[in-house]
Amino acid sequence: MPQLYVNLDHVATLRQVRGTTYPDVTEAAVLAESSGHVHGITLHLREDRRHVNDDDMRRVKERINIPFNFEMSVAEDIVRICREVAPAQATLVPEKRKELTTEGGLDLVGGGERLREVTRDLQNDGIAVSLFVDPDGDTMKRSRDLGATHVELHTGRYADATDDAARATELEHLQHAARVAQDHGLLVNAGHGLTHLNVGPVAAIPGILDLNIGHAIVARSVFLGLVEGLREMREAIERNADAMRPRS
Questions:
Q1: Of these residues, 150, 154, 192, 196, which one is catalytic?
Q2: How many domains does the chain have?
Q3: pLDDT at 219 (0 to 100)
């Protein structure tokens, strides 16, 4: 059964939109851990610091006892902070200043040498490195060649599909990419745009280890509270993944 990593970036978004000191990202991370519904915490330290900031990253790492996944670009100052914080895992993602959210997977060709360098440096510090990538077979091989041990499959096109046929096609791409990744010895995570309504088929893909889910949980928490939002997502993962797995 895939593990749930909750991305708490948008707790910080609520804080930043009014320039207040609340809500506190660290408090949210501690509450998420104490709920028993998550296996890890994810935060994305963007270069423009639009939501979480350097202090959030340090405080969360100090306060939680479950794995911390540090999402990041390969900018020099971000890499330096990651190495100082020393999370369990770093997920390297593409970043554009004006995008609302991450728009696609990494460019493993044009940005390959920098990705290789950062991957090597972080791994030398004992940090596992995952590459956020689009779900196609060639990308899986390139990820392995760059030295990554993990990939995170970008599920955005699946989540954004507007009809059943398109959604089924995108799910097939994810399934194929997961198989190819595992054939190349990579561990497979997934995330982006997943909700309690669409997560089941992705959770059922054999070999998926971690699901990084944030915006949908924080949005549901407005109505349910954070603990109940996490419970709803965890139960959706477990119920749907178990129902969709083939029976022997």
A1: 192
A2: 1
A3: 97
What pLDDT sits at residue 35?
Answer: 98
44 is annotated as an active-site residue: yes
Q: Which of 37, 51, 71, 170 is catalytic?
A: 71
- Residue 177 maps to which CATH number? 3.20.20.70
Residue 103 has pLDDT above 80, yes or no: no
pLDDT over 70 (residue 97): no
Q: Which domain holds residue 158?
A: 3-244
The answer on pLDDT for 122 being more than 90 is yes
Catalytic-residue membership of 99 = no
Per annotation, catalytic residue among 10, 37, 44, 154: 44
pLDDT in tens, 197-241: 999 999 999 999 999 999 999 999 999 999 999 999 999 999 866
Distance CA 153, CA 222 (A): 28
Based on the residue annotation, tell me whether 215 is a catalytic residue of this protein: no
